[in-house]
Amino acid sequence: MKSKMKGNQAPDGRALALGAVRAAIAAADPCKLVRRAVSRKGKILQVCGLRKDISSFDRILVVGGGKASGAMAEELEKIVPVSEGAVAILQGTASRFKTKNIALLEAGHPRPDEGSVRAAERIMQLARSAGPSDLVFCLISGGGSALLSLPAPGISVDEKADLALALMTRGANINELNAVRRHFSLIKGGGLARALSGAGRTYSLIISDVVGNDLASIASGPTAADPSTFADAANVLRKYKLWEEGKWHNARAILEAGLRGKREETLKRMPALVHGLPGGLHNFIIGSNSTAVLAACRYLSARKVEVRAITEVAGEARAVGPKLAALLAKGDSFCAGGETTVTVKGKGRGGRNQELALSAALKIAGKTVVLVSAGTDGIDGSSPAAGAIVDGETLGRAKKMKLDARAYLNDNDSNSFFKKLGDEILTGPTGTNVNDIMIGLALGQPKSKPRNR
Fold this sequence. Notes:
The protein is of the alpha/beta class and about 450 residues long.
């Protein structure tokens, strides 16, 4: 993790905040999470408390996808005798992992590509091959929506990607985005669960990157029942003024067919209930944003720093930043987690974490406080940074360099601002993804006294 330390205000606070972010990312390490969830003694397998004799299975298969799936696959092979498998991973990362029988299929992210389609096709083929004497592990994590892309007939992978981008730039949240994605896909919205309906037993190990850990939203829910409908997806397009735009006619045609009952809805009941399978499919969340937040709290607590944990942070990044700054102004230190959104109106380069940090910097000038906001996956929006760090001197340093912080914020150009200051946080892809982490330390700020009632 790289961030140049400039200025002399609260240097220990900056180091502590960055250390807490490192601790949060380390706690969400996929290998550690898999080892905690899965163990084996001889033929007895234990998965999240469920015991099973694996000698009753002919094959153990592995499928899945996401930013953490490569590391998850490598670790799982060390525990169970995998017969065959295939998982979709980030383009250019296959050399980081060593697997024997699990194919690592590189695919596009954040924009899905033909590699995403090929990976999804191979994974679905392997899933459909699973029979009553097969045990299957599904490895699902954030990023799976792009890495596993199998468009429904009538729409191309590029059209789907363009539509998702249009929704994101207009401020759609992850739940709205995934409601749309699921209804244009054969693998999302329980599509993979349907393909696995013939398997004797399936364990889906999931690392959540979704606020609230909604199974249907993590990687767009390939192994989960979907509560949303074609009508919900259509309403999202209407809300963000895309329904009437002519360029989305293929998407609209699919949704209209679904509204008329001419397209099959996404999975509404789990296959175990539909087909009466003896083993069925079990979804387990083995890591989430809370894993990271609590680890950051423990790190700071061990260093005698009193903090409060805040979970499920959401909303517009530029609105959340000032709210967190207000807590710091009151003397409240915190470890927070969640995922904000950005409505892109400018032409700059940045991401939700850097936009949050920049908006907070405008409110903490002159105060002895530090705030870090970073993506646990090491990626923030359209920039190479994971996030940024700010303190009470950030604005003053910017003015000396003739940098107008508010102008950069208005142009959605937070990365350019922090790059010039040397305060962008660079980690590279971390191999995990459990939303964002925000560390705020008010080490030199007097804590406000509660009012008498």
